[in-house]
Every structure is written in C-alpha cells, then in structure tokens.
Design a protein that fits this description.
This protein is an alpha/beta fold. 40% of the residues lie in helices and 15% in strands. The chain has 11 helices and 9 strands. The strands form 3 sheets. The protein has a 5-stranded parallel beta sheet with strand order 6-5-7-8-9, with helices on both faces. The longest helix is centred in the first third of the chain and has 24 residues.
Length: 326
C-alpha cells in the first residue's frame, strides 16, 4: 500500500512540475479569438498575455496595439496597417518587435506623436482585411498600408469555422497548460499519422478565378479607403520559396503589380528588395516557409520607412519633429 501511494504521489508531483514549467513558458494563457461576421474572426478585445517570453497586447479594436482613442488626437500621425500573421508576429514575436512597432519607432524620429496600428490575425486573406475595414473603418488614419503576401493573392477569406474548434484558434482559456500543449503540438501530429485527409467538398475553384475574386475584394478596399481621401500603400511580402534557392517571380505577382500601377497605388516590394541580397542573408530572414525572423522584421521596417518617408511618398511623414527643434 505504501508503494502504491508513493507512485501516485510521484505521478502527481511530476504532472504538477510539468504544468508549472509549461505555464512559465506561457502555455495555458493563449490570446483568444472570436468569430466576426465581417472579418471572419478577430482577436478578442482588451487582452494582455505573455507567451514564451513575448508580450501580446490587443486593444479595444482587436488590434495588436495599445489602447487608442477612436478619434485621432490632434497632432498625431496615425497609420493603419492591416495584414496576416506576418504583420501580427504571432506568439514567437514580442510586441515591440512586430513590423508596425518597429516602423513606429522609426517614425518617432520625425514626429513626436505617432500611432501605427496593427490590425492583423493569422491566416487572414484580402477578404478578411476588407471585412475588418467594413467593421471598424480607418480610424481617421493619415495612411493605410495593406500587407499582402504571395500566398494571399490566391487565398480565399478565412472563415470562423476553426474558432473554438482548432487548437490554434482558441476562444477560451484551457483548464490546464498540459492540455493546451497536447492539443497544439501532440494531437495534430498524431492526426496526421492516423487520419487520412479526405478531398475537399464542393466545386474546385481555379487559381485564376481565386486571383480575380481577390482583386475584386482588393478594389473594394481601395474604394473604401479612397472615399475618405486617405493615401493607400501595399506592403508586398514574399514566401521563402520566392527567393530560395534562387529568386523567382511568384505566380500572379506580375498581374497584381500591373493592377497596382493602374490604380496608382505605391508598393513597398520586399520580394524585389530581398532578391538583391546575399543568399545567406535571405536564409536568415525566414524561420519557416512564410514567417520572417527578427532581423527580417527590422529589414522590412527599414524598407517601409525608407520608401514612405525618406523618399517622401507619404506627405504626412514630413511633419515637423519638435524634438529636433529643441
């Protein structure tokens, strides 16, 4: 009997230690999502969590940004950036290391009051961006920057189906950190081994049709932004396969760039900029097939600042910096 109690006690102690260690890493406290009729899904508003040593804060408008006033404060340079996980940074990126925060830090060199808003969520497509603008508007911004990647050109809008059902899209806190770690990392691997993927239901849609549909959604965004007389820019981000082993032209990118030219929308083209870099540098810029590393985020922020402000494509960037006058 004593041996039995000893084994049970050791098991409880071991599980408790594992639970504590996982909670210290951030498991058990994920940033929560919620379904949204317009954008498909958004992050639940007013959240502050710490995951794997990184701060993730979402304001009242589900932006990965600090709380803001709905009316832009007088004298503030406000820029709205909208995108997917590349812009968001996910759990692996601290708030201060995301593209909008890095860009904001650079803008503070020319303007005292700056807000770069980060409206983004993992797997958002152009249709989700459109839905967010329809829901919330443009926040009296001085400019809107759409982050659109190679994969976004063909991606249909992501739906809310996974919210609360997919472990990567939680809508409530898990009871245990062990539970979350198992659901996020162990269960998917087991499913891939033992569960065969069935073909998708419905009529298949050609890539050309998907691109045309996304361009229609994109032009709806353009119309909404321009109706408010706000400058619009595109931040084009590329996938790893677009640059390695050698740079190549992504499918439908030429057609997209032609559309931007016709609409007179400036583009900050990360694909072109990184195509000129050494292969070893490009390799260090990706942590997987899509998502940038910390040095890559710095590079993107530099390129955005250079093209919008140094090259004076955004007039608001030229506003006087009162710090430099002192």
């Amino acid at each position: 009997m004593k041996a039995k109690y000893w084994i049970v006690s050791c098991a409880i102690a071991s599980l408790s230690a594992i639970e504590l260690a996982l909670r210290l890493l951030g498991f058990g406290n994920p940033a929560l999502l919620q379904a949204d009729a317009n954008a498909g899904y958004i992050f639940a508003p007013n959240q502050l969590v710490y995951r794997f040593g990184n701060r993730l804060e979402y304001n009242q408008f589900s932006q990965r940004s600090e709380q803001i006033d709905s009316a832009k404060p007088e004298g503030t340079l406000r820029i709205l950036m909208i995108g997917d996980s590349v812009l968001n940074g996910n759990n692996t990126t601290d708030q201060q290391e995301t593209i909008p925060e890095l860009f904001e830090a650079r803008l503070l060199g020319i303007k005292n009051q700056v807000e770069v808003l980060n409206a983004s969520a993992g797997s958002w497509g152009i249709g989700n961006q459109l839905g967010y603008i329809r829901k919330f508007g443009t926040f009296e911004s001085d400019a809107v920057i759409l982050q659109i990647g190679t994969h976004d050109l063909l991606q249909p809008p992501s739906s809310s189906a996974g919210v609360g059902n997919d472990p990567l899209m939680p809508n409530r806190k898990p009871l245990l950190a062990i539970q979350e770690a198992f659901q996020r990392h162990v269960s998917p691997k087991l499913s891939s081994i033992f569960v065969s993927n069935s073909p998708a239901a419905g009529v298949p849609v050609s890539e050309s049709q998907r691109f045309r549909e996304n361009m229609q959604r994109f032009e709806q965004i353009v119309a909404l932004v321009r109706a408010k007389n706000i400058p619009l820019f595109v931040l084009y981000t590329c996938d790893r396969a677009d640059l390695l082993p050698i740079p190549n032209q992504p499918r439908f990118k030429s057609e997209f760039v032609d559309r931007l030219k016709a609409l007179k929308i400036p583009v900050i083209d990360i694909h072109v900029a990184w195509s000129k870099l050494p292969k070893t540098t490009v390799e260090s810029y990706f942590r997987d097939g899509v998502h940038p590393t910390a040095p890559a985020y710095e590079s993107i922020a530099d390129l955005v600042f250079q093209q919008l402000c140094t090259e004076k494509k955004l007039a608001a960037c030229s506003l006087t910096n009162t710090n430099s006058e002192k």
